[in-house]
From TrEMBL:
Keywords: Metal-binding, Oxidoreductase, Zinc. Residues 1-53 form the Alcohol dehydrogenase-like N-terminal domain. PROSITE patterns: ADH_ZINC (PS00059). Belongs to the zinc-containing alcohol dehydrogenase family. InterPro entries: ADH-like_N, ADH_Zn_CS, GroES-like_sf. It comes from the Eukaryota. Gene3D superfamilies: Medium-chain alcohol dehydrogenases, catalytic domain. Its cofactor is Zn(2+). GO terms for molecular function: metal ion binding; oxidoreductase activity. This is Sorbitol dehydrogenase. Pfam families: ADH_N (PF08240). Coiled coil: none annotated. The keyword Oxidoreductase applies.
Amino acid sequence: VLLKMHSVGICGSDVHYWMNGRIGHFVLKQPMVLGHEASGRVVKVGSAVTHLK
């Protein structure tokens, strides 16, 4: 599935990574794109995809 991204949000974890470079034992390795809460539009699907259009 190919998505055309519309927007991506950041959450508290992303802000913590940005401010402190880590959360617990997970140390941020650069480069890392923050933001994982996304919305977009399906623009293309493969032949095996039957539930999205």
